[in-house]
Amino acid sequence: MSQQWALTWNVKRGTEAEVIRLFERSGRPDHTVRNASGEVVGLLRRTSVFMRQNTVVRVIEFDGEFIDVAKHMGQQQEVRDLERALDQYLEVERDMSTPEKTAAFFASASMRCILSRRHDEELADV
Length: 126
Hints:
- The protein is an alpha+beta fold.
- The chain has a single domain (about 5-125), classed as Alpha-Beta Plaits (2-Layer Sandwich).
- Helices cover about 35% and strands about 30% of the residues.
- It has 5 helices and 5 strands.
- The protein has helices at about 15-25, 65-75, 75-85, 100-110, 120-125; strands at about 5-10, 30-35, 40-50, 55-65, 110.
- A hairpin with a 2-residue loop joins strand 3 (about 40-50) and strand 4.
- InterPro entries: SchA_CurD-like.
- This is SchA/CurD like domain-containing protein.
């Protein structure tokens, strides 16, 4: 069963358009999540990004354990490039220099999904 987690942070006011462009141009990470031994331990299913004023919310849907996904994301060049480009726009600095520090940021900025319903599945039963 898939999980969803959201990450939230603020960018400097007045930089919203630049931040949107960065996300629009960013690459896609490998969707297969592997552990240090190379075994498949998860799958990235979907990423959505929302912005309200200068608050950014990135929602990640995945299979597997959150910590494995966070470490995986920290190893993906596309994610590292985007995060590095975002650094200049952040209200509060963060350290994304290693997979472990990236995972720590994910843990501190994350919001756990407490409810997610698929309404289209209910319609299939009608």
